[in-house]
Every structure is written in structure tokens, then in C-alpha cells.
Prior knowledge:
The structure is a single chain. The radius of gyration is 21 Å and the shape is globular. It folds into two domains: 1-18 and 232-299, UDP-n-acetylglucosamine1-carboxyvinyl-transferase, Chain (Alpha-beta prism), CATH 3.65.10.10; 22-228, Enolpyruvate transferase domain (UDP-n-acetylglucosamine1-carboxyvinyl-transferase, Chain), CATH 3.65.10.10. It starts with 12 loop residues before the first strand and ends in a 14-residue tail after the last strand. The longest helix has 13 residues, at 48-60. Helix content is 30%, strand content 23%. Strands 1-14-16-15 form a four-stranded mixed beta sheet, with helices on one face. Strands 3-4-2-13 form a four-stranded mixed beta sheet, with helices on one face. Helix 4 (100-107) packs parallel to helix 6 and helix 6 runs parallel beside helix 7 (191-202). It is α/β, with parallel strands linked by helices.
Amino acid sequence: MDRFVIEGGKRLEGEIEVYGAKNAILPMMAGSILAKGKTIIHNVPDISDVSIFLGILEHLGADCIYDKETKKLELDTTNINKTDVPYELVCQIRASFLVSAPLLARLGRAKISFPGGCSLGTRNIDFHIKGFKMFSADVNGEGGYIILRADRLRGADIYLDYPTHTGTENIMMAGVLAEGKTIIENCAMEPEIVDFAKFLRKMGAKIGGEGTGTITIDGVDSLKPCEYWPIPDRIETGTFIMAGAIANGGVFVKNAIYEHLKGPIAKLRDMGISIEKKDSGILVVGQDRLTSTNVITGP
């Protein structure tokens, strides 16, 4: 059995750099399907989710190169010729369903296994399915798979029952190549959504409103591949900040974005921890004794 053995009692000191946000990179990997050619994404972490998603893209016909030293990912989707994603790939990662929209938008068809082989029911996947139907796609369930078909998606006004992260991203990808205007209301507003919109815009998408509750998209006929540096991972950033604070350390988290962690930083300051916003990151200096505080999580 694998295990971690931690010997504490030591002050953490030094500088550490944050990798790109996984929750922005995975939809960008899916978004590369929207355009023929080579898309390059930088500062990609060497983690299992990225490796599994690469396996999905390679199954579809993409040529993928990941350099573990430079953390550069090259995705050439020119020769994608499959539109099916089998259960053995889907079951490994929840984000696998993100390939459904770009396959449908570019190739007119997608066949993707339900996690666990389930039928259509009251699952989070329903947000995606309802969205595809609003785009005038044919949606059917058969033998544990969802099958999507459309000659050309048509723009739609879509109100999400819940501001789902992956649901917003899938609908964004469907909308960028749909005919006409798409409006997504009650959409997700996290920094990763904002960054994904910037990525799509660099590919040539006409999209706006990211970071608010309403995203508007004017569909285009085609997109082009791009090169992109995603935002740093705010969960990883928060972990390093907490570690420095708990261990009474002096830790500089390089490339971290202060504005993405205002809530946790405010609480840490209430506890007596020194946190400074720098031009290239965040400096955390712990204290010998911390003050207690109350924390209420958001919805």
C-alpha cells in the first residue's frame, strides 16, 4: 500500500512556481479539436488527468507530444477521424465528456459512453444534454452511449439550472461554431472559465461576457489553432500558501495570481499571517502563534 511519511517540525523556506490550472487546461485540450492544425499549451502539469485526456485525443486520431521537461504540450488535431469515445476511456476521468461538443461542432457527430454505462437520468450530464438539444442537435441514448448528431448547430438562448463548470465549457464550444448568436445565462464565472474564453478568442471565436453570469457568442465558420499560456492553478497556489503559513515559513509562490485567492488570503490575514502581493507572485510569512477565526464556505 502506498503511503506518505511526514516528519514535521521544520520551517518551510524558499520559492516555488505554480503550474497551469488543470481545470483550464483540460477544456483547452478538448477545445483544440475545434480547429485543424497544431495547438500549443504551455506550463502543463505532468499529472494523470492530463495523461488520460491525451489518451482520449490520441484515440480520436490526434498527434500529441508532451515534453515533461519544458511542460509544453503540442496537439495536432488535423487527422482526427473518430467520433466515438469508449467506456474504458470515459470511466477514467469525468472531464472526458468535454470532447462531445467540439466533435459535434466540427465533425457533426459524437458517440460517448456514459460514466458507468448509465442511461439518461437525473445526472449532472443532463446540463450538457439539454444544451445540445437547444442547439438543435439530435440526442439519443443507446447501449450505454450518448449519440449526438447535427449537420450544423444553430445558436440558442440557454439558461443553465445550475452554473456548472464543464456544462458551461461544453456549451461555449458548441456555440463558437454554431450558426448565429448564442447566449448562456447563469453560467459559471470562475477564473478558469474566463481563461478558457480567452483561449477560444485566440482561436478566432467571437465571445464575450466571461466572468459574469451571461456569456454571449457569435458563431463563426471556422477556428484556427493557437499557442497559449493558461493561468496558474489557484488550488495549487492555495495549497502552497497554506503550507507556508502552517509551517511558520517564508514562502514565495511564483506566478500566483493574488486576485484568484482573495477570500482565503483575507482569512489567513485574520489569523495573523503576513501575505504580500508581489509583481511576480505572492509572499507568505507565517507566525509563531496564530489567531483563531471563523470560516463560512460559499455555495
